[in-house]
Specification:
The complex is a heterodimer of chains A (about 350) and B (about 550). With about 350 residues, chain A is of the alpha/beta class. Chain A is built from eleven helices and eleven strands. Helix content of chain B is about 75%, strand content about 0%. The two termini of chain B are about 25 Å apart. Classes of the chains: A alpha/beta (about 350), B mainly alpha (about 550).
């Protein structure tokens, strides 16, 4: 009995050691990095960034910034909602230095709630689109996405050209929209669209009658168009559609001529930031030509108009609705409630 | 002996108290205290909210329907596996637990991709498109959840039936009348108590489930408690006090159900465990029974494993997802991307392994001490500890996670583990401690009383007794508990979503975020790797148990 139970222990032990060794191998680099950073931390400290940026962009910015400054970045990625909730939960015990959100309205809300600090002297600040940024330097709109109609080129019978087209019979049960309570850009869209268009809510109602499905976060909504479950996504974020198109998926995006909403994404420094120098360096990097280049590589619109866009429509080619982002946050909560009432 | 002193009780209770009870108290505190004052407005705000009652209705309805669904699948399966010649095929049990070990959000994604408009089913059989409309409804959700949870009920029923098979039926054959009467008078009453126990646990598990409601439920607009709590915590506008109120309410519902389960359990327990080993009789079936049985097993396996895994594997292999199932559209690129050194997927997967391994080890040690202290739960103190250590099994994980976040962010604490990797391990340990306690307790209960007595007489010191006698004898149970904890930690989603520190991802959150923002094919590849590893571990676990059985005999 003793022998076999010993054998058993040995086998399990070996297996688990193997698993751990495997894990150890993969984690070697990170372990080494951690060691380095703790050695440096006395001079440089680490920088904690909460970013709602697209996955690839946030990682690229992080890597380039670390290489440039030698500072270690702790990155938390999530949707705008997740980041706001994390900040709320951590209120008594704040960790984040820099926050990057996919919604200027929420960013403005944070400024109003006295959670941000101003950084007026950011490098390149004058080149960044002033419509997307705070005049007092609390946040900068370093990039933006335009919201359009993303459709499946194999399944859609016609190319939609207006928002109202999607209420037609040929789109019956074939359309979806990202859930505005999950997607900052979808709230921006509904807010901007209903503010600028008097008939906005009637059109939304007509989509609902035509079988509009509210479908998770941005990517989930676009995914059901890619796999052919739906034919078109309303308020589809364009950079995701361009990215999918570049990967060979049968997707195309159009911006209706009557105009659409451009949803800026902004970066700001937390009031309680522990590493203010690092945070300012991060903002400077995002606004620099190098940072803006990374933004365009992710198919987003750059905050600095001088930087050329890549394989996509430039800002002045997109018909825009005029939207005022000041104090939008409180109005957006009403909009969200109204939207949820229609779709429940 | 060292495991009986007052100090031991104090230490164990302190550990369980800090990690499992404090979070629940934190929920109470945040719900009822506002700015240092007792305040009932939060809770009344919740009760005034129509949406809350709607959610409650949805959760309870779902629970009842899933009970029906799992019964329809599990009961015939248990009968087939005990009353027909299929009793020989023990490997079926491992295969049948695969659905339960599959992370539920991946299973339901598999179903969605298979059934949706232009999904894999319609590509294979274009005329089957009418099925999609019926599938994306409450019916489909209940089916997906039942197919995920049925192994749990099945194993309980099968074990009871196996025990009844032995001496009870022999006695009935000799003294009873006809087979049907034997069934109605003996088998059914014996089966009922374990059935009731099983379905109540299924009910609680359904209430606690997050993955399927988050993927399938959100698609058909079916909100339940867990998704509501999660959305108050992660959607804009954030409402933390609403989340704690809802958590408290869900906690109460589960405790009430658990109370009823205890009540029923106590009334209807018959001792069906005797020391004798049951002889497996050779069974000969008529051909149509055999055919029917295999057909049934085949259909259940097709629906619970075949279809979801078909979608998952195909998606992980697709080059262009918009091209569907066409020749030349397949490559191993996603797997290559995962196994590239330093890739996000790989490091997330390895993080999972490390967290799960540490969790398994820590819970094994704590579980061992708790089990040794509780023994058979005869004194009040033992029962108290027993209750607290098994509590995480009754209370939905999301409630604990919310509590842990509140507790470790409390300004009263001098230091906090929040936002560190330790927090992840602590959360996992709290959630999964019951597994190790249960496994160790059950192997302890199999030890004969005489071992304790002879140990007490001949043992040099009590520590020697533990080291040389109990721990080696219990090793098999401890290891089984460790494996189980490891497997379950590997697939934990909701804890990871809410508490992971910056720059850290686990396999589960990586997969989930691929659906939200990233590359679905990559997510599915990580899912396939995780499940493959889990299945290998399960076969290993089974092998260990069998070996342990021989060694112990």
């Amino acid at each position: 009995m003793k022998k076999s139970s010993l054998k058993m222990i040995a086998t399990v032990g070996t297996l688990l050691t193997l698993a751990l060794a495997l894990a150890g191998c993969g984690n070697n680099d990170t372990a080494a990095n951690e060691g380095e950073s703790s050695a440096q931390s006395k001079e440089n400290k680490t920088l904690t960034v909460y970013s709602a940026g697209p996955d690839g962009l946030a990682a690229n910015v992080q890597q380039a910034f670390e290489e440039k400054t030698g500072m270690k970045v702790e990155m938390f990625q999530g949707t705008t909602g997740k980041i706001l909730s994390r900040l709320e939960a951590e209120k008594t015990n704040p960790v984040a230095d820099v926050v990057v959100l996919a919604s200027v309205a929420s960013m403005d809300g944070m400024k109003e709630a006295d959670q941000l600090q101003s950084y007026k002297d950011a490098e390149n600040a004058d080149k960044i689109n002033s419509d997307w940024s705070d005049a007092e330097g609390y946040y900068y709109g370093y990039s933006a996405s335009a919201l359009g109609i993303a459709y499946n080129t194999k399944n859609a019978k016609t190319v939609p050209s207006e928002w109202s087209d999607l209420a037609k019979a040929e789109w019956k049960d074939k359309i979806n929209i990202p859930d505005p309570s999950l997607s900052g850009s979808a709230v921006d869209f509904i807010y901007g669209y209903t503010e600028a268009e008097k008939t906005g809510w009637d059109i939304i109602q007509s989509w609902k009658t035509n079988g509009l499905q509210v479908n998770g976060a941005n990517k989930e909504a676009l995914d059901s168009v890619i796999t052919g479950d739906k034919d078109a996504t309303i308020s589809g974020v364009d950079y995701m559609a361009y990215k999918a198109k570049a990967d060979g998926e049968p997707v195309e995006i159009v911006y209706p001529k009557s105009g659409t909403v451009v949803s800026p994404r902004a970066v700001g420094i937390m009031k309680d930031a522990k590493n203010v120098d690092g945070a300012q360096a991060y903002v400077n990097f995002l606004l620099s030509d190098e940072g803006q280049k990374l933004v365009t590589d992710a198919y987003l619109l750059p905050g600095n108009k001088e930087i050329p866009v890549k394989d996509r429509a430039a800002l002045d080619e997109i018909p825009q609705l005029t939207v005022n982002w000041k104090d939008a946050e409180t109005k957006q909560i009403d909009i969200l409630t109204k939207f949820n009432e229609i779709f429940q | 002996m060292i495991m009986e002193g007052r100090r031991t009780f104090g230490v164990l209770l302190a550990i369980v108290g800090t990690f499992a009870i404090a979070p629940l108290l934190a929920i109470l505190y945040y719900t009822f205290v506002n700015g240092g004052q007792l305040d009932f407005s939060q809770i009344s705000r919740m009760f005034e909210n129509d949406r809350m009652w709607h959610t409650l209705g949805n959760s309870l309805l779902l629970g009842v329907l899933v009970i029906m669904g799992t019964t329809i699948i599990a009961l015939p399966m248990a009968l087939i596996r005990t009353k027909t010649s299929l009793i020989k095929f023990d490997w079926l049990d491992i295969i049948l637990t695969i659905p339960f070990m599959t992370p539920p959000y991946i299973g339901s994604m598999g179903w969605i991709l298979f059934m949706q408009n232009n999904g894999f089913l319609q590509q294979l059989i274009p005329s089957a498109s009418w099925m999609s409309d019926y599938f994306f409804s409450l019916f489909g959700m209940v089916m997906v959840m039942s197919l995920h949870l049925f192994p749990f009920l099945y194993l309980m029923l099968r074990n009871t039936l196996l025990r009844i098979n032995g001496s009870f039926l022999d006695a009935a054959l000799i003294f009873g009348r006809n087979p049907w009467r034997n069934w109605a008078k003996i088998v059914l009453p014996l089966l009922v108590s374990s059935y009731v126990l099983g379905i109540l646990l299924i009910f609680i598990k359904t209430l606690a489930e997050f993955g399927t409601p988050a993927t399938f439920g959100s698609r058909i607009g079916f909100q339940v408690f867990t998704t509501e709590i999660h959305s108050y915590l992660s959607r804009w506008p954030v409402d933390i006090s609403m989340a704690t109120s809802l958590s408290l309410f869900l906690l109460s519902v589960c405790l009430i159900i658990w109370y009823f389960q205890n009540l029923i359990g106590r009334k209807n327990t018959y001792s069906v465990l005797s020391g004798k080993t049951q002889a497996v009789r050779e069974m000969k079936d008529k051909w149509y029974i055999k055919l029917g049985a295999w057909l049934y097993v085949g259909i259940v396996l097709l629906f619970s494993i075949g279809i979801p895994y078909f979608s998952i594997i195909v998606t992980s292999l697709q080059k262009v997802r918009g091209d569907g199932l066409s020749a030349g559209n397949f490559s191993l690129a996603s797997y290559q991307a995962v196994f590239t050194s330093g890739s996000a997927g790989l490091s997330a997967f390895l993080n999972s392994i490390v967290f799960s391994f540490i969790t398994a080890s820590v819970t094994a040690v704590i579980g061992l001490f708790i089990a040794l202290y509780i023994k058979k739960g005869e004194t009040k103190k033992q029962q108290v500890l027993d209750f607290f250590s098994l509590m995480p099994n009754i209370i939905p994980g999301i409630v604990f996670v919310v509590g842990l976040i509140m507790f470790w962010n409390s300004p009263l604490l001098p230091a906090t583990i929040y936002n560190t990797k330790t927090m992840v391990v602590v959360t996992y340990c709290v959630l999964f401690l019951p597994y190790s306690v249960q496994y160790t307790k059950s192997s302890l209960s199999q030890l004969d009383q005489s071992i304790f007595q002879s140990a007490a007489i001949f043992g040099r010191s009590s520590w020697d007794v533990y080291r040389h006698i109990f721990i080696p004898l219990l090793m098999q149970g401890i290891l089984a508990g460790m494996m189980m904890t490891f497997i379950i930690s590997m697939r934990e989603l909701v804890a990871g979503l809410l508490i992971l520190p910056p720059s850290v991802e686990t396999g589960a959150t990586f997969i989930y975020s691929q659906f939200e923002q990233g590359n679905v094919g990559l997510g599915m590849a990580v899912a396939v790797i995780t499940v493959a590893m889990t299945v290998i571990f399960m076969f290993l676990l089974d092998w260990l148990q069998k070996r342990g059985g021989h060694a112990g005999a």
